[in-house]
Amino acid sequence: MSTQEKIEIEENFFLSGNYAPVSEEHVAEDLEVIGEIPADLKGYFMRIGPNPVFVANPAKYHIFDGDGMVHQVEFDGGKATYRNRFVDTDGLRKEREKGSWIWKGMTETMEDMAAGTPPPAEGMFKDLVNTAMVFHNDTFYGLMEGGVPHEMSLPNLDTVGPNNYEGRLNHPFTAHPKVDVETGEMMTFGYSPMPPFCTYSVINAEGELVHSTPISIPKGVMMHDCAITDKHTIFLDLPITFDFTRAMNGQKMLDWEPENGSRIGVVPRMGSDEDIKWFEIDNCMVFHVANAWEEGDEVVLLACRANKTEVGDATENANDADMDMTDQLALFTEWRMNMATGEVTERNLDPVNYGEFPRINDNLAGRKTRYTYVAGIDQNQRGTPFNREMKYDGETGDIQVHPLGEGCKGGEAIFAPRVGAVDEDDGYVILFVRDEINQTSECRVIDAKNFEAEPVARVKIPYRVPFGFHASWVAK
Ligand SMILES: [Fe+2]
Hints:
By secondary structure, this protein is mainly beta. The protein has one domain (3-475): YVTN repeat-like/Quinoprotein amine dehydrogenase (Methylamine Dehydrogenase, Chain H), CATH 2.130.10.10. The protein is 7% helix and 39% strand. It contains four helices and 33 strands. It has helices spanning 3-11, 90-98, 106-115, 244-248; strands spanning 27-28, 33-35, 43-50, 68-76, 79-86, 132-136, 139-143, 150-152, 159-162, 178-179, 186-191, 198-203, 209-214, 227-228, 232-237, 240-242, 254-256, 262-268, 277-281, 285-295, 298-306, 331-338, 344-348, 355-359, 371-377, 386-393, 399-403, 408-409, 414-417, 427-435, 440-447, 457-461, 471-475. Strand 26 (386-393) and strand 27 (399-403) form a beta hairpin. The longest helix has 10 residues, at 106-115. The protein is globular and about 55 Å long. It starts with a helix and ends with a strand. The relative contact order is 0.14. It binds fe (ii) ion (FE2). Fe (ii) ion (FE2) binds next to strand 20. The site of fe (ii) ion has 8 residues, from strand 20.
């Protein structure tokens, strides 16, 4: 890398510090531990994130643009092993063969679309697989919402390849499908700037795509997450819109457009467009839901709600101290949709702690859950703001806070049930932590039933683990 290239990269917040990509893949066994890894913790903790190899224009690099890399800690027998691997996508292979970038980043690609500049011969978008992961039908997948699920092996994280469900998948596949552990079904959807703006699909326990229907919404929107109950699937039509006319007039193709309104759609699991019930809500942005379930006539939804978003600006500007971010930070919120009366109510569950990346005991997705774990945001920090974890008790309203410590930054945590667990919170909350002061990375294991205590184990990772997006737990 030339000095000039290095300077340009450091000018982009999301290519510097602990956002900077790593280039090497490692395996490290029998890791040093502060504390003790519980003997009843057995499985794989993983976090995926953007880790660009070739960057077309560092000044316009967006945090969504990087090639996917998975960082894994395998727990077994009181010991831990670390692995990190690139997701070996077709796009990354082609760029490696060329030795340079082929695809521009999201911002420049949308500018090119608006200007009528033709896309690369290899296709409009690179299938990055950098956002989240899911385990379904005994198969582990890396996901990105513009693309196709990529199967990866465990424990070694070899990329097996994309799965288009025998050609039946006819839409992009969200990074946040939901698996009903009781039935084995996986509910998914995709959105598009062009009609159909949203398409919903159900994949059965055997991995067959058995149901697919368009979901009509007024305009193309960025729809990042969905929710399920045991009967319904829930869609969030929120006003972060795609607009080609706007783009051709020199404005942003993806932008906050409150005039488009906000609504929650509830459709029976195997239902179609005509079966959906829409509930108009106050304008807001929800990136991530925690869970949803049925209570009599009501469908209850828990999610992290912000007043708005300017996600399209998550480039070098993210470290601009003059930007007021408060409106874009999320608070834990409940909606109750009454399927009989059509009424919807919204209730803030914590007016104090901004947070994101809500997670539950995934074995209960779609069923009533008492506990939600949310990564707490320090609103005074820029860009790397996760400095604590919250545990919400929906029965008592109690909020427990686990601070990560001075200079320590986290991210999404998952809940890993203890082997033989009975209670909902009988298990461990696990996350990667970056100690910015000592420049070290570790994986922390917190006893979920003793949430505010020190972690039971701090697994020292001998390599830098960059900040990433979503985490996953796969039991062995
Ligand atoms: Fe996400």
